[in-house]
Amino acid sequence: MMLAAAAAVVVAGVWYARPRGEGGAARHVIVISLDTTRADHFGCYGNTWIRTPNIDALAAESILLTDYMTTISTTLASHVSLFTGKYPHTHGVPRNGFIVHDDNVMLPEVLKEAGFTTAGFLGSFALHSRFNFAQGFDYLDERFEIFLDGDEIDQNQRRAAAVTDAVLAYLDEHGIPPRLFLFVHYFDPHQPYDPPPPYDAMYGDAPGAIRFGDHPALAYGDGSADSRRSLSRYAGEVSYMDHHVGRLLDELRHRGILEEALLLVTSDHGENLGENPGKAFHHGRTVYQSEMHCVGLIRLPNAAYGGTRLDLPVSSIDMLPTMVSYVGLPTPAGVEGELLTLTDPRANTLARPRFGEASKPARREFDPRWFNNPKARCVRDGSLKYIRTAYLSREELYDLQVDPHEQNNVLESPTVEIAARAADLRRRLDVWTAAQTPLPSRFDDRTHDETIARLKALGYLGGDDQDDSEGEEPP
Q: CA-to-CA distance for 402 and 400, rounded, in angstroms?
């Protein structure tokens, strides 16, 4: 949806009235998205065994959001929340394969109206323009290649090396405009985990490989050889991706873009690596921290406030108002996120509940008000996290301060105080649910069979979506 032209004139006036590089006048805006990437797989988030030197170095120049939470653990819906500042039950996209409604005002649209050249580079079909994700982009590179058993069998995804190459080729061909919005989407830490050499053997139990250290999946997962192999290859994917993100950052710095940019590095969701109930080595079915806790780094022009850590409850819907405000633009109407002050990050005092939801299983979409209502949903308030999964008639409550991996559901033996806190959080979740006003959306059925095949090739819409096995009780 395009913004009113009159508003753009005012916005442009505000932009030109502010000097570059001072308190919100970044010349460029860059968003780097790391698909399916857990925050705890980076040294800057406390991991002692992973090798992620480029993101870790960037963190030292950035504001690190230590408690950053996505709204939903699936690619398309999460990115639409990021780009609209709205929860899924407002923007209307419940999961992959659905169409983004034109009435959504997306970040590229806001910046394009203010005079930015907008360019996006996708690593996955899940964000393809056929789902109307391209709103506001002047240029969207969505040339994919999937590598499975060494054979190129479809045009569904591409490796980090190809994504970085595409960005650099675009900059070589088009140069650097006065104002640039870059969206760069990496897809590598995603099933099937298939890092190229030497990253395929970088971690694990073999001689010379890096050991996993205190990986939570070793403490709470099944510990089988297959699981350990998946853990090693997932970590290899993260390190491989980090290398090519580093290539991009080096080039952005060399070309003079980085020091004049507001840069956000984030992940759309994490991955259940077996430490929590649900589908191991996958995502979308649960709202545990393994899937909801995400990467959040904000680098300001000239690395202002680099090394600052914000231990505040930040949601992915907070990013749109934060970014547009920093570059001197008004926040679009209806945004549900809250503004982070970047001109003095230590002055932020956010303290409010955050909400999230699962996108699977698809067969449980029987609530006409909103497809995801019967699925797992959560509310966070301070260290307490309440989860309700309606189709399983299950409630959970965790104190993340003492139980960060959600292993002890305190509602199994609640004290009077715990029961009272659970009742309060249940009420808050009900109030949030009652506020849902989703824009109309539908699954892309223009070429239904092709869409299904492509999403299945990415690990979506397979048996994981269709059956309710895995030891779960029927509703």
A: 5
* Cα-to-chain-centroid distance, residue 441: 21
Question: What's the pTM?
Answer: 0.90
| pLDDT tens column, 175-212 | 999 999 999 999 999 988 999 999 999 999 999 999 99
Residue 434: what are its φ and ψ, rounded to 5°? Answer: -65, -20
Q: What is the CATH number of the domain that holds 155?
A: 3.40.720.10
Q: Are residues 110 and 259 in the same domain?
A: yes
Question: Of the residues 320, 352, 384, which one is the last residue of a structural domain?
Answer: 352
Could you report the per-residue pLDDT of 315-354, keeping only the tens digit for each? Answer: 999 999 999 999 999 999 999 999 999 988 888 887 889 9
Nearest residue to 187 via CA among 136, 130, 137, 146:
146
Assess if residue 471 is contained within a domain. no
- Please count the CA atoms within 13 angstroms of the CA of 456 that sit on its side-chain side: 9
Burial class (CB in 10 A: 0-12, 13-18, 19+), 251: middle
Number of domains observed in the structure of the chain: 2
290: containing domain: 5-352
Q: Residue 216 domain-assigned?
A: yes
In terms of C-beta density within 10 A (0-12 exposed, 13-18 middle, 19 or more buried), how is residue 471 classed?
A: exposed
- Token digits for 168? 């650099």
Strand partners, 261: 28
